[in-house]
Specification:
The structure is a homodimer. Chain A is an alpha/beta fold. In chain A, 40% of the residues lie in helices and 16% in strands. The interface between A and B is large, with 47 and 47 residues.
């Protein structure tokens, strides 16, 4: 700005601008209040400061500040079963009368018997089979509406809170902190992309175009004179384990400089992020808080945290103890 | 802001802020100087103003301002053959000694004989076959580097200018104008996504994560102790015709409110954009300028503009006459 003013107007203007700037500067506040002042919080802030400080040898330009987050177990809870399975149960029950063969065909049979643990054990692939089978023939718009309607009132079977309130408050703060520092935040999840997109913008501030996930095949048709995309009963892409780097490359096309997960399904994503040049950051959330959430790791059949943990120890990656490093787990208000 | 100042300091502060704001307001300048003041320019500006004006019945919130652009023939030239084919020719020639079978196998045989028109006639699929075959076994990083090296000096066979200088100046202005108005601009092209991403950010200001295109399958491997993504000789996705709405849904997950193309391969994308609710905009670039560029439409074997033109006329979509509506076609400086 090039204009000169006589004092005291000049001083007042400067003061006014300084005040306006101070109001939007978050640096004086703690960006991560739900994180205790332990190792993980310090490691996050040290990483963010060095990659965002102009002139630092580790400086990363804004467009390359890509951060990827797993969803189930990393941004929101995944116990007793991944929440998409709860959605699928509703859908299968509704459609079961039209599909007598499901009574003997897995994973539908277990699901109809209420044995969700067994269904969940079929993994992302089994889950996607159920989702694609139950939604074959629906348009993407119809599916999106059915997710939106369901999630508006779906509650956690143990806490009775809305599922969208079982997101992790420390991770919401982390997402906001990274975005304030010029990062673009992405979800890279084994969950269905069409299941997540209807609510991730509202709940996490992550828009649909920054959500990567497993997907079924689609077909363009004309219905009532309008083009629609119809969901086919076939899997197109499984965004889990070795699928995560592939999902990142095919959908984002740029290697993240920071990656966040909680189980062995995220290991390849973290390895992919860490194998790039320059400063990198990898973090696992360790579920060790049976009081406030759940406790599970090496022995868990569904969301095992075993090889990932070993690798994190060997490589010196950050591992968050939910019990020790987070002073708050869930947001107080519903979302 | 809540603070009170005594005049004249208050007035001076107000004047200072107004001056600061005026400096960043582009509205006094013509945002589209390379467009003549004809119908298409007026239609673009009328659309943008109504969807961005708060309180307007057609107002669209910023996150939903998604605009998708075809690349070949819409953002840069595609004659005499799509430029990715020129890249593929180089690659095939280099690798031909290791592939004696290519001498009799199409589309390699035609390519090696220099019959590029025949190769181009195999369409996006034929092109992707060549690309995936020549690059099988390469890592995505190696491929990206080979594209970057090639495009740094690759020249147009007719004009002798850098290929990256055969982008359309009016479309560069349109991209910048839309972004200044809160739009997120995406490429949705039949071309290979890995061929475009290495240079779209520099040339168009469109980052890799906003580029959707055709793609080959990938495989995660470990080489020299590091994870790499290896290109497989198999097509994963063809982002052309009915593939464009599928690419938009699977990669962006939000329906564009404006779509831009130049041939029948873009028709489904434009129909998909227009079938949404609220204000919408669809535009075809008509190549009718044999003096400054090329002239081709209904009779063209490779990039036909026939059904799309009929639909544009029937629906009242905007059709740009390159000859009459653009006062400049290419940028004066190289990019």
């Amino acid at each position: 700005m090039k204009y000169s003013l006589r004092t005291p107007a000049r001083l007042v203007l400067a003061a006014g601008l300084a005040l306006a700037c101070a109001q939007s500067a978050p640096s004086v506040q703690d960006p991560l209040p739900s994180w205790n002042d332990t190792g993980p919080k310090k490691a996050i802030i040290a990483f963010v400061e060095k990659v965002t400080k102009e002139g630092s040898p580790d400086f990363v330009p804004v467009p390359e500040r890509i951060a990827t987050f797993d969803n189930d177990g990393t941004l929101w809870a995944e116990k007793p079963v991944p929440f998409q399975l709860l959605f699928a149960v509703e859908q299968v029950k509704q459609l079961a009368p039209q599909h007598p063969e499901w009574k003997t065909k897995e994973p539908f049979a277990s699901l109809l018997k209420g044995d969700l643990a067994r269904v969940a054990a079929t993994g992302e692939k089994g889950l996607m089979e159920i989702v694609t089978a139950t939604h074959a023939g629906m348009t993407t718009d119809e599916f999106s509406r059915s997710v939106q309607e369901w999630i508006a009132s779906a509650k956690h079977p143990k806490t009775g809170r809305l599922l969208t309130a079982t997101v992790y408050q420390p991770m919401l703060e982390l997402l906001a902190y990274l975005r304030a520092k010029g990062f673009k935040t992405f979800i890279v999840s084994g969950g269905g992309v069409e299941f997540m997109r209807p609510w991730t913008e509202r709940v996490y501030g992550i828009p649909p175009e920054q959500v990567v996930g497993s997907a079924g095949k689609l077909k363009l048709e004309t219905r009532d004179g309008k083009p629609v995309l119809v969901k086919l009963p076939a899997i197109d892409f499984i965004d889990d384990k070795e699928g995560k780097p592939i999902g990142i490359q095919s959908r984002i096309g740029r290697r993240p400089i920071a990656a966040f997960g909680n189980s062995d399904g995220d290991l390849q994503m973290l390895q992919w992020a860490m194998a790039g040049e320059g400063a990198r950051f990898a973090l696992f959330v360790h579920h060790d808080d049976s009081q406030r959430e759940y406790s599970y790791d090496r022995a868990d059949r569904l969301q095992q945290f075993d090889k990932g943990w070993d690798e994190a120890i060997a490589q010196g990656w950050t591992v968050v103890s939910m019990k020790d490093d987070w002073n708050t787990v869930f947001p107080t208000a519903d979302r």
